């Protein structure tokens, strides 16, 4: 750039068959996670694939750029302007989320589905794209928006009990040049920003890939098994996992979406290590240990023959002292334990 307060760089050279003449701007100087991630994400899109990054606060330079993030005082997606610092800005992601967006959140809101569709190698209108679009925002993006906008995680005036500088926003912030660094040139600053982009971007893609490869298949399994619950027991309060997978969050979300009443009390699954079966009481909430209906108190702490005698069910192995989980040698035995527990 022609001014002393601006600099540009191309973080990754564009392949010869996909050259982009586009230029994406953000501010120079100290950087945060939101613009580092926003720049990374926008360069994954067809429109701005591997675009050149221009770091400046010069308004005349900003006007010449194809897209501008986190600087300029304008939010206008029709012109690809994605700042969030201006007075009156209150844009949120929607879909039930109320956290004010950062520049990363704005880029994700407008380009996230395209990025996810590319990762899944499906059309943008595929229903899985929308599911991941919401899940990645909830699990990854919203915290970045909230931290950048200074929104407390908890509704309390009390100071936090401990300091957490291990989150992504803190780790990105540490890439900024230290005040003791003798070389404070724009070149060194751009190198630091490149590292920040790489870190934020790699963790974003890791999140998208986890949800695509693990979370989404697990949700399909949980949905299928929950839908078949009345075949297991007429009450609809017992579910059997055909394949064990991370299930807790999916179960709570699907109960809400499907308006299940009564809610599920027990889940059954095979323990791959012992080849026996487990009956687990569903917690009152995903982050709580307390069970909706713990296994009966008279069973707790008993094992093997003593437990089988107490329950009247052969093949019993154990019931935990808290009643949140028990075991049986067979599927039939575990199911009998769950059915009996419902009635006690």
TrEMBL record:
Q: Which domain of life is it from?
A: Eukaryota
- Where in this protein does the record put region Disordered? 1-25
Quick one: a GO cellular component term?
A: nucleus
Q: Which regions are flagged for Low complexity bias? A: 1-19
Matching Pfam families: MYG1_exonuc (PF03690)
Under InterPro entries, the record lists: MYG1_exonuclease (IPR003226)
Family in the record: Belongs to the MYG1 family.
What is the protein name for this chain?
Protein MYG1
């Amino acid at each position: 750039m022609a001014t002393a307060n601006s600099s540009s760089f191309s973080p990754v050279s564009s392949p010869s068959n996909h050259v982009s003449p586009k230029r994406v701007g953000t501010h120079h100087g100290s950087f945060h996670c939101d613009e580092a991630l926003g720049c990374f994400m926008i360069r994954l899109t067809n429109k701005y694939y591997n675009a050149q990054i221009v770091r400046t606060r010069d308004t005349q330079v900003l006007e010449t750029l194809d897209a501008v993030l986190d600087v300029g005082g304008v939010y206008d997606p029709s012109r690809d302007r994605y700042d969030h610092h201006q007075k009156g800005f209150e844009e949120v992601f929607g879909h039930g989320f109320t956290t004010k967006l950062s520049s990363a959140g704005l880029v994700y809101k407008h380009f996230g589905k395209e990025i996810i569709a590319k990762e899944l190698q499906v059309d943008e209108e595929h229903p899985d794209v929308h599911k991941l679009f919401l899940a990645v925002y909830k699990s990854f993006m919203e915290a970045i928006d909230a931290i950048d906008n200074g929104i407390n995680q908890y509704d309390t005036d009390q100071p936090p009990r401990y300091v957490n500088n291990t989150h992504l926003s803190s780790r990105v912030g540490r890439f900024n040049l230290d005040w003791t660094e003798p070389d404070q040139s724009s070149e060194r600053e751009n190198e630091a920003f490149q590292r920040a982009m790489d870190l934020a971007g790699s963790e974003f893609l890791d999140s998208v890939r986890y949800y695509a490869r693990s979370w989404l298949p697990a949700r399909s399994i949980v949905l299928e098994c929950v839908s078949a619950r009345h075949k297991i027991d007429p009450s609809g309060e017992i579910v059997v996992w055909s394949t064990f997978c991370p299930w807790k969050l999916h179960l709570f979300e699907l109960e809400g979406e499907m308006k299940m009443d009564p809610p599920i009390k027990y889940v059954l699954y095979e323990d791959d290590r012992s080849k026996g079966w487990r009956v687990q009481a569903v917690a009152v909430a995903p982050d709580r240990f307390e069970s909706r209906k713990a296994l009966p108190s008279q069973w707790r702490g008993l094992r093997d023959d003593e437990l089988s005698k107490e329950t009247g069910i052969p093949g019993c192995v154990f019931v935990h002292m808290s009643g949140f989980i028990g075991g049986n040698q067979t599927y039939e035995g575990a199911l009998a334990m769950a059915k009996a527990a419902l009635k006690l």
